[in-house]
Amino acid sequence: MKLNKRLSTLAERVSLRYFTFIALYFAEGLPMGILFIGIPAWMAMNNKTVTEIGAFDVACAMPWTFKFFIAPMMDRYTFLPMGRKRPWVIICQLGLFISLLVMACIKDPLNNLSLLVAGGFLVSVFGAAQDAATDGLAVDNIPAEEQARANAFMGGARMIGSSCALALSTWLLEKYNFLVSTATIGVMVGLVTLVPLLIREHQEERLLPWSEGQANPSNKEIQINSWVEMYRSLYAAFSLKNAFLLASLLFLSQGSYNYFEKLLPIFAVKVTGWTHVYYSNAFAVADLTGGIAGILLGGWLIERFGIKRMIYIYFFFICAQTLLLSSLSQYWNDSNYLYSYIIVYRWVNAFAKIGVFAIAMQCCSKRVSASQFTFYMTIGAVGSMVGAALISPAKNNFSWEVSFMFFAVMMVLCAINLRALNIKKLEHQIEELEHQRN
User: Fold this and answer.
1) Closest residue by Cα to residue 277 from 35, 36, 45
2) Is the pLDDT of residue 413 over 90?
3) For residues 150 and 138, is the Cβ–Cβ distance under 8 A?
4) If 0-12 CB within 10 Å is exposed, 13-18 middle and 19+ buried, where does residue 436 land?
5) Cα angle at 170 between 54 and 134, to 5 degrees?
6) Cβ-proximal residues to 23 (8 Å cutoff; 6+ apart), any chain
7) Most distant CA pair in the chain: distance in Å?
8) The pLDDT of residue 2 is above 60
């Protein structure tokens, strides 16, 4: 029997679906760890200004806002004999690997900030594209009853990847140099590329372009071959009131998180006196344990108590925790206090993200899976970019206490937005639109 017929497929095995998406989201988290946490903390430690760090953050966040231009191409153009999204996952994963190696070759990055910013932008372009392709693959292949648990696995894997990359790259940066640190993360991303190369979405499909196989009939039925039809489907989906509310929730929540998480390394280094290595290790431990907790508990809690109820609890807890940080300035120089704060915050943050992303996934149409889910994620990325851009004016004009209070207010707005969102009604409306198009 030929190799490609012996290998299981995403459509056949639940365990393979979980393994595949854990691996791909782990790979997605690897560059996030160094781009969004490690390098900004390293820059702060080397006396770079808030404005310079903010410029790097914005450059890394900006490509994630372009995903909505990439995702329709993934829905419109694909090589169906290899699956609807798998060819794109392979291409983007390879691009992410190569871009990290290119960024690693920047000489003296701290004194060549324009090149460092450009390198971060390039890696984020492929990171965003890989995310869009992987999200589309997930929406297409994960049944509704598995989505909460799958999102817990995926979100947890991304955090574990981020924490591993953060700890490893920081250690290599201190022991060796920027080249070794960044190239090592690139090689890890390259190794994960073997996963999409060795799996298929359906049994009859080709493993590689030159292998034997054919397109899956169900994929042929839902594949859109007209730009006009695609944009009609997208317009119909996003003209719904609850779709707008869901997009608003993603914008507010992701913007809030990124605003706060860009303040934290600056606060830790400037106020508490941490080194960037100590901060990176603390954040890595928080993300590693939070990712594991998300995998083990995130999906189960949602299934047991309900998705909206749990997200309300997470938002409330983050808000209360932030108010405590703002009011207990006498403990800011206590490393143990800040360390504990970061651990607890990242745990609850992981659970909250799992819940919101699960809502977005379950409210997507398979006909335009990459485009619709990516639109939601893109809105979140726009929020992240806005959040990163806010750190400079916030910190330059207000005290640390007030800057932290802004984050607490943002969390309240997220909870109000969630209260107005009717998830079941949006799911029903999406199903009706699919039936009308078929």
Assistant:
1) 45
2) yes
3) yes
4) exposed
5) 70
6) 157, 192, 195
7) 69
8) no
Tell me the C-alpha distance between 200 and 197, whole Å: 8
SS3 state of residue 361: helix
- Which CA distances in Å does 8 have to 17, 20, 21, 90, 151? 10, 12, 15, 18, 22
Give the residue carrying structure tokens 């869901």: 246
Sequence-distant (≥ 6) Cβ neighbours of residue 1 within 8 angstroms: none
Type of residue at 313 = I
* Cα–Cα nearest to 365, from 378, 354, 376, 381: 376
Tokens found for residue 133: 């392709």
Residue spans of alpha helices (H) in 211-240: 217-222, 227-238
Q: Tokens in use for 215?
A: 């397109």
Q: What is the end-to-end Cα distance of the chain in Å, rounded? A: 37
Output the 3-class SS for 302-323: HHHHCHHHHHHHHHHHHHHHHH
Decide: residue 21, CB within 10 A, 0-12 exposed, 13-18 middle, 19+ buried.
buried
Phi and psi for 200 in degrees, rounded to 5? -130, 160
Classify residue 80 by burial, with Cβ atoms within 10 Å: 0-12, 13-18, 19+. Answer: middle
Q: Where are the alpha helices (DSSP H) in 176-240?
A: 178-192, 194-198, 217-222, 227-238
Listing DSSP states for 41-95 in one string gives HHHHHTT--HHHHHHHHHHHHGGGGGHHHHHHHHHHS--GGG-SSHHHHHHHHHH
Phi, psi of 9 (to 5 degrees): -125, 165
- pLDDT-derived band at 436, boundaries 50, 70, 90: low
pTM: 0.75
Read off the pLDDT of residues 163-181 as tens digits, 9 standing for 90 and up: 888 889 888 988 888 999 9
Residues near 275 by Cβ (< 8 Å), separated by ≥ 6? 45, 269
Q: CA neighbours within 13 Å on the CB side: how many for 117? A: 14
Closest CA relative to residue 124, chosen from 155, 152, 153, 92: 92
The residues, ordered by sequence, that sit 6+ positions from 98 with a Cβ below 8 Å of its Cβ are: 126, 186
Share of the chain above pLDDT 90, in %: 25
Contact (Cβ atoms closer than 8 angstroms) between residue 213 and residue 201: no
DSSP 329: G
Whether the Cβ atoms of residue 22 and residue 151 lie closer than 8 Å to each other: no
Q: Which of 258, 195, 229 is nearest to 58 (CA)?
A: 258
Q: Which residues pair with 200 in a beta bridge?
A: 9
Within 65-177, where are the H helices? 67-76, 86-104, 113-141, 147-175
Query: Which residue is it, tokens 């996952």?
Result: 89
